[in-house]
Amino acid sequence: MLLPIPARDTALDLISFIDASPSPWHAVASAEQRLRAHGYTPLAEDARWSLVPGGRHYVVRGGASLIAFVLGSRPLAEAGFRIVGAHTDSPGLRIKPRPALGGNGLARLAVEVYGGPILATFADRDLGLAGRVVVRTGAGSQTRLLRYERPLLRLPNLAIHMNREVNESGLKFDKQSELPLLLGLLGKDDAAEAGFLALLAAAAQAAPGELLSWELAAYDVQPASLWGAEEEFIASRQLDNLASCHAALTALTATQAPGATCVAALFDHEEVGSESAVGAGGSFVTDVLARIGLALGLDEEDRRRALAQGFFVSADMAHGYHPNFPAAYEPGHKVSVNGGPVIKANASQRYATGAETAARFMACCEAAGVPCQQYAHRGNLGCGSTIGPIVAARLGMPTVDVGSPMWAMHSARESAGAQDPAYMIAALTACYAN
């Protein structure tokens, strides 16, 4: 499959976005940079908002969640909202608040499992460190992004000679005792802590004594790439779900003079349930939509009308068919990588799709000239969920769950189709226009 040049360019732009975004806080910083380049201006939650039709703005909460919007030309109560939601976080390993472990001449960092990663895929990979630190300054505390782009940490495997059943029983790690990451030859406990703090301080451009707290994740430093006979696939970390964040942002910034008010909502903490002040289960999206209505002079009746006129697209990733494991898939729902956006349905409401919202998204795909697929999970396997049902319940808004197909979801190195980012962007752009 030879990719059209526009689709290849879109895939390379996605790669650039992911490579710049090793943590949720970096993802929001990358999103802000793109939004500003398209004329979007920031709003502060603790300031009064003055909004006019056609205005382009964004709001950040907690550093890792962002909502951007362009105000439509039609009355909000009549046209409603068009919202695309995604999430900035990915499963992996987070560094504990006091992580330094010494002994046996080695320094290690204690980690906590975040979400549901495939732990085995983090073994024997070049791992960096990324996130944010809070430092003490003369003017108070200040939050700074931190990133080690070089290999800093590693989770070496145990040799097969000491784990003879690994190929039959699978690679497993005890989450407490076998996951600490090797950092270096730093010696005793106190030397390990001092060495770790010195590393953080240097990266944060601060003195070790000025470090107050941090939120840090280990990440695979290998850059994303195109692969395959014709480079028709993408290999990268965090395709779930930065690919959807990239699609939502690109579709929104490509939307000019919409009739409806168009929104891209990027949330943290989806991988751990969304119940936080910055997650989809919190008040962020309802607060922003309510403030838009207030700034435009809507009363409570018209605000409810605007929600009822809306359409929410929950954009996450989908399980592409893997021919080596046919028994893992529901017959009739083997969606193809590079086959276009996938509508995800589940009778138990793990996905928020209904018949009418599925048909509406199909119409958007048809208007965009892209193929569309449908997915249902195998009945004897537990089905994952998304922000879709959570936001749908809070807003009372018609909702559809969609995603681009991929392989190895939650791996340290995932794969997807290089054509699908362009397909999804075109479909979401049509959703904003209809």
Blueprint of the fold:
Layout: H1 5-19, H2 24-37, E1 41-43, E2 56-61, E3 65-70, H3 76-79, E4 81-87, E5 92-101, E6 107-114, E7 127-137, E8 140-153, H4 166-169, E9 181-184, H5 189-204, E10 211-220, E11 225-227, E12 233-236, H6 239-254, E13 261-267, H7 284-295, H8 300-308, E14 311-319, E15 342-344, H9 355-368, E16 373-375, H10 388-395, E17 399-407, E18 414-417, H11 420-433
Parallel strand pairs: 1-2, 4-13, 4-14, 14-17, 15-16
Antiparallel strand pairs: 2-3, 3-13, 5-6, 5-10, 6-9, 7-8, 7-10, 11-12, 12-18, 15-17, 17-18
Count of helix runs? 11
Give me the CATH architecture of the largest domain, please. Answer: 3-Layer(aba) Sandwich
Q: H/E series, N to C?
A: HHEEEHEEEEEHEHEEEHEHHEEHEHEEH
What does the average pLDDT come to?
Answer: 96
What's the main sheet like? 12 strands, mixed
Name the beta content range: 25-35%
Question: Overall 3D geometry?
Answer: globular
The count of domains is 2
From the alpha carbons, calculate the radius of gyration and give it in angstroms.
22 Å
Number of strands: 18
CATH class of the largest domain: Alpha Beta
Uncertain ranges: none
- The CATH superfamily of the largest domain appears as Zn peptidases
In which range does the helix fraction lie? 25-40%
Q: Assembly state here?
A: single chain
Distance between the ends: 31 Å
Question: What's the CATH topology name of the largest domain?
Answer: Aminopeptidase
Helix/strand-derived category reads: alpha+beta
